[in-house]
Structures are given as C-alpha cells and as structure tokens.
Request: fold
Amino acid sequence: MFKNRLRYLGFEPKDGTLVRVRGNLSVYPLRGSYQIICESMEKAGMGDILALLEERKRKFAAEGLFDESRKKLIPRFPQRVGVISSPTGAALRDILNILHRRAPGMDITVLPCPVQGNEAAASIAGRIGQANAWRLADVLIVGRGGGSIEDLLPFSDELVVRAVAASRIPVISAVGHEIDWALSDYAADLRAPTPSAAAELVSADRAEAAERVRELAATLLSTLEGRIERARLLTKPFAPEDLEYRFRSILQPRLVRFDDAKEELCDALSCRVRDERDRVRSVTTVLETANPRAVLERGYSIVSDEASGRTITDAAEVATGTRLVIQPAKGRITVRAEEIGAGKIETEVHG
Reply:
C-alpha cells in the first residue's frame, strides 16, 4: 500500500491482524512472486475494535472524563459557531445550509481537518485546541457524516476524547448517523444524533423565538391591564365626594367610644377625689381634736420646769422655789413655786 493510501487508514496494521483488502494483483516474473497493490484496507473482525473501544471507554470513565458535573451548558442563541469537520464532506454542507437558513447573520468559523485516517485524530484535537486558544466560537460542533466503525475511530481516539473533555468552549459531538457512536459523544457537553441535528440545536429559530417573545409580551400586557382595571373598580367607590362620609362612618363609632370612655374616666376620678377629700377631712378632724393647742384654747395651760423643760403633771414633782413656765393658749408666764400642797397654791407672778 502506497503512502497516499496509508493516510486514510483508521488503524495501524500489525502482524497477525485479520484484514480485508481491495486492490490489484501483480506478478514478479523473475521470481514468480505475487503481491497485492492495496487500494483500501479494513479490519475483518469488528469484535477487536469494539473490545478496544470498550476498554478505552472504561478507562476514560474511571478518570471522570464522562462525568455530568464536567459538562457545560450549550448557549441557546450563540453568536459564533465553530465547525470542526472535513471541508469537503456532506456533513459540513448540511450544517452550513441549516445555519444560514435558521440563523442568518450568525458568525461561522470552519476549522477544516481530515476525519478519517491516521492523521485525523491529531488534527481534530489540534483544531479544538486552536479554537480554545483563540476563543474562536461560543460553541463547537465536532463531527462528520456516517461511515463504518473503522471510519469513525478517530473520534474515539484518546487525543480527541481528552481535547473534547478539556475544552473551555462547549462542545457538541455530531458523529455519523443516529445509530453511530464514538467516545467523543460521552466526553462532549452534548451529543447530537447527526451533524444536521447539531446545527439545529445551536440555531434556535430566531423568528420562532421572536414570535414567542411577542406572545409573552401580549400576555403580560393583558395581565397588567386586567389588574389595573380591577384596581380601578376597587377604588371607584372612594370618590372624593364620598371620602368624607366614608371616613366619618369609620371614625364616628370610635369617637363615640372615646367619649363614653372619657365620661367614665371623669366620673371615676370625681368619685375618687370626693372619697379622698372626705378621708382628709376626717383625718383632719381627728388631728385637730388631738392637737394640744386646741385644748389650750379652751382655757387649759401647760406647766413645765423652766430649768429642765419637763412637763409637770403632779404637784409633788415640784420643789419650793422652783421656777416654772406656764404656757397658756397665748403668751408665756414664768413663776416661782412658794407653796406646794394639796390645797390652794399661791404664786408670785413676775411677768
């Protein structure tokens, strides 16, 4: 197989690998040897390929490359879309046609690369790295049209799977037809069954979205108008000419209650003041009755020892010659005791 044919192989031939080849038979007459000039070569046993893919799948899953927590949201209305695919494939034409029809004016960047053969995996991974390094798009579509399981092998290559998982730009994997699958489908943020479906996912119909916005705006306006009308009906009874009447109808019962409470409070205070006044009068009477000056007003006097100030209540307590002070209701009299006895007491008044 010549070099220009080797580049389209999806695997590396090894000794012992069962293959199916197509080409021309040639004979070398001098040695009588036969050889086949191969135009194409494919593995004859798919079981080996599937086993290889399952082994890789388990390996990448164990590393967490397929975890849902790693997946990024696909923007609903991206401004820039990057397409990594064969520049001559039907898949690219389908993607471009759908994007131009559904989202005219969208920026589309095509990053061409081979999608099968030994060089395809490295080229696809390199394009993903370039798109991230230069931030060329808001979302990437990585894929190709349908083919045999051998044709799709580059999209299950370790380089491609790790590049898809490491991409900071959201990636949609669109490999083959709906029944086809590749390991890049598991690492991508979203799998599309076909390249055309991937184009539809990133180009939500702008006209449909605009119509939906108009419908929502009409619904919102109708709801607001309904609420305003309801508020108008609720406030209609509160016309300016009725406000005073309604205010009084609300306030009057409370004013009556306040007046009744005021009257009750005043009556209670009057009763309390009257009771306290009677009590003060009664106490005053008692105090006035017990007041010594009131007794003196009736002609009684208080006799006390001038020297000690002790009140004399018994004549036996006074010695002859003791100076005494007589305290009538008014004034003050100082005397000296000359005779002390049970009979009439004679005193000399000095002042």
